[in-house]
């Protein structure tokens, strides 16, 4: 597929699914009395907009008990810095800027996953399906909110394209930038290191560009962690505030198992917990289930390594379990072969029906979590 055609398809997918998600959110907002703006500005969006406006040490929202920076520094700087820069230039309010930027970055991410689908051997229909897979996913509405999801997905998908194409310095630079967006960029760094090692040993030569990329790839994440730890020394450091504020720490999956057990046997659990549990279980199944696709060369190993690493990070750590559907969005890359199966083995009407049901469910779940579900996503 010509690049221009793919870009047009990505634009149309982004616009259409974005409109559907906002339309369903409007229906929920009307029924619940919670405005669309209030829904889009919830939870992490408050932190990002507050940091953009007042900095880490004087964020304007949300209200924080104790020294504000001991919570605000949990959020990586790239997205709030982008918000602040564009606000300075345009004067627009932070919510408008945040949603607009995220929508634009959703297009970039959609084009990225469609390009990854092309590298996986899928034709135009499969590439369109891959775009729908990402943007139509449950809680993908965060990709049009003032969240870091769209920025991270845009950088990570194109970093993977660069790794697959062996454009080493581009891959290193994009990975470095992703390291300023969120901690999950460590998975991109790991993939880049593994592929550089493999390429070096199989080609039997010194690839200076590959190792230059490896050298620069962790600079973003390492620099921010050093900065945060310096200012959080009295609070115990970055990972201590993550644990205290969000119960986020590596526990080999103990918390995930406890959550699944509680949802399974506690008849007082609300629907949001069940939905989160289903997605967690699906992610655990997807990792081993998609490995044969690597062997069949229908999924590049680079994509599988990244998706598996993201899934492992989420499933083997404690944290806010009902945020898992959002945090597992990068792992949807593992399902590119499933999209290929649907496009090859199902009729066109069946493909349309599957895509429609998937987008409808994703939009419903997104709206439910923003307007009805009482806890953070």
From TrEMBL:
<keyword id="KW-0328">Glycosyltransferase</keyword>
<keyword id="KW-0808">Transferase</keyword>
<feature type="transmembrane region" description="Helical">
    <location>
        <begin position="271"/>
        <end position="291"/>
    </location>
</feature>
<feature type="transmembrane region" description="Helical">
    <location>
        <begin position="207"/>
        <end position="227"/>
    </location>
</feature>
<keyword id="KW-0337">GPI-anchor biosynthesis</keyword>
<feature type="transmembrane region" description="Helical">
    <location>
        <begin position="303"/>
        <end position="321"/>
    </location>
</feature>
<dbReference type="GO" id="GO:0006506">
    <property type="term" value="P:GPI anchor biosynthetic process"/>
</dbReference>
<feature type="transmembrane region" description="Helical">
    <location>
        <begin position="355"/>
        <end position="376"/>
    </location>
</feature>
<feature type="transmembrane region" description="Helical">
    <location>
        <begin position="128"/>
        <end position="145"/>
    </location>
</feature>
<feature type="transmembrane region" description="Helical">
    <location>
        <begin position="180"/>
        <end position="201"/>
    </location>
</feature>
<comment type="pathway">
    <text>Glycolipid biosynthesis; glycosylphosphatidylinositol-anchor biosynthesis.</text>
</comment>
<keyword id="KW-0812">Transmembrane</keyword>
<protein>
    <recommendedName>
        <fullName>Glycosyltransferase RgtA/B/C/D-like domain-containing protein</fullName>
    </recommendedName>
</protein>
<keyword id="KW-1133">Transmembrane helix</keyword>
<feature type="transmembrane region" description="Helical">
    <location>
        <begin position="7"/>
        <end position="28"/>
    </location>
</feature>
<dbReference type="GO" id="GO:0016020">
    <property type="term" value="C:membrane"/>
</dbReference>
<keyword id="KW-0472">Membrane</keyword>
<dbReference type="InterPro" id="IPR007315">
    <property type="entry name" value="PIG-V/Gpi18"/>
</dbReference>
<dbReference type="GO" id="GO:0000009">
    <property type="term" value="F:alpha-1,6-mannosyltransferase activity"/>
</dbReference>
<dbReference type="GO" id="GO:0004376">
    <property type="term" value="F:GPI mannosyltransferase activity"/>
</dbReference>
<feature type="transmembrane region" description="Helical">
    <location>
        <begin position="94"/>
        <end position="116"/>
    </location>
</feature>
<keyword id="KW-0256">Endoplasmic reticulum</keyword>
């Amino acid at each position: 597929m010509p690049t221009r055609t793919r870009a047009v398809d990505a634009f149309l997918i982004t616009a259409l699914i974005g409109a559907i998600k906002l339309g369903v959110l409007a229906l929920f907002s009307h029924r619940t009395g919670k405005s669309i703006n209030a829904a889009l500005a919830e939870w992490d969006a408050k932190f990002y907009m507050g940091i953009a406006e007042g900095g880490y040490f004087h964020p304007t929202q949300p209200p924080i008990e104790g020294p504000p920076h001991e919570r605000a520094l949990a959020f990586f700087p790239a997205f709030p810095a982008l918000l602040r820069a564009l606000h300075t230039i345009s004067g627009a309010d932070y919510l408008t800027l945040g949603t607009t930027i995220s929508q634009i970055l959703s297009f970039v991410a959609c084009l990225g996953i469609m390009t990854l689908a092309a590298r996986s051997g899928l034709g135009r229909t499969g590439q369109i399906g891959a775009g729908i897979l990402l943007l139509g996913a449950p809680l993908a509405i965060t990709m049009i909110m003032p969240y870091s999801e769209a920025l991270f997905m845009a950088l990570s998908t194109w970093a993977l394209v660069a790794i697959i194409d062996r454009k080493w310095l581009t891959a290193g630079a994009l990975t470095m930038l992703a390291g300023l967006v969120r901690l999950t960029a460590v998975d991109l760094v790991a993939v880049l290191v593994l592929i550089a090692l493999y390429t070096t040993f199989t080609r039997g030569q010194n690839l200076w560009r590959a190792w230059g990329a490896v050298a620069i790839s962790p600079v973003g994440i390492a620099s921010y962690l050093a900065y945060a730890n310096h200012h959080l020394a009295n609070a115990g450091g970055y990972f201590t505030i993550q644990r205290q504020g969000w119960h986020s720490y590596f526990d080999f999956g103990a918390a995930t198992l406890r959550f699944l057990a509680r949802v399974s046997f506690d008849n007082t659990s609300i629907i949001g917990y069940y939905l989160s549990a289903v997605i967690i279980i699906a992610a655990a199944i997807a990792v081993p289930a998609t490995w044969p696709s690597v062997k069949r060369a229908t999924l590049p190993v680079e994509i599988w390594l990244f998706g598996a690493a993201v899934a492992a990070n989420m499933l083997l750590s404690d944290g806010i379990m009902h945020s898992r559907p959002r945090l597992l969005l990068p792992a949807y890359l593992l399902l590119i072969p499933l999209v290929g199966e649907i496009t090859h083995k199902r009729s066109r009407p069946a493909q349309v029906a599957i895509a429609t049901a998937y987008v409808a469910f994703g939009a419903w779940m997104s709206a439910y979590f923003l307007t009805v579900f009482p806890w953070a996503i």
